[in-house]
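FORM 7B: Structural annotation worksheet

SECTION A. Query
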Amino acid sequence: MFNYLLDKINEAEFQTDPFKFIYLEDFLSDEHFRLITRNPQMKFPEFEHVDKLVEHLDMRDYKPVPFPGCTTDVGQYLKWYKGDTSVKSPDHARGLIEGFGIAYRVQRYHNEVIKQLMDFLNSKEFLDTLRLKFKKTGRYTVETAIQKYLTGYEISPHPDIRKKCLTYMLNINPDKKADEMGLSTHFMKFKEEKQHISKFWNDNPGTDRCWVPWDWCDTVFEQKANNSITIFAPDNDTMHAVKLDYDMLKTQRTQVYGNLWYADKPKVKGSTWQDFA
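SECTION B. Predicted structure
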């Protein structure tokens, strides 16, 4: 049913600016895209209050999950959302973001076709297609799921940690105007005076990569289009970032989010943006 997605990936040409990645619009067929975005587990009604949105997420089998730039503490998030200035951003953000968001992941798919799609995206056949396209070998673990990201979610520019082999993001926003709402992922490159950081990461494979301030990078491309997918293999130049500030009571940023993780990657020492300041 979904083998046409393999053909699209196999036939895709690589983009090279600001780094090597695949970008495909209209990834899902019209039939599959409509089925997903019109399904009540994805397309919510509008809400008058954030508490009703949270209740609805729970009813539709979404749960908060640990995620960069996010908290799993719904109570703390609601305090922040309602203006409580005593609530601080997560420690792992190292002072780089102003607040935080919350990422809700589907725990059980209510529609059989959507479940089959997610099973396919977690299948060996799909993952082998990605591995061959990006010439990756070795042992891996995979996670692919549908997530909704509430306002405040932010990850400052970063290339992804070394343990991550591949990452892919498919926009399945249920609102037709989503591409005008500032929900996009920014694909970026270091400013000239900061490009030595990529070289440092390249020359020091025993040191992990880290988040950096927004003003160290420039946006080259934004993944705005609905039903578009981006796929890339994290490297020392794959800078990308997200910052959400939108009316989530009307609609929510919704994605199929997937990662391929190295199973045997050696441990590396951490680093922070302060090391390069």
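SECTION C. Observations
The chain has one domain: 3-276. The chain has a mean pLDDT of 94.

SECTION D. Sign-off
Analyst initials: ____
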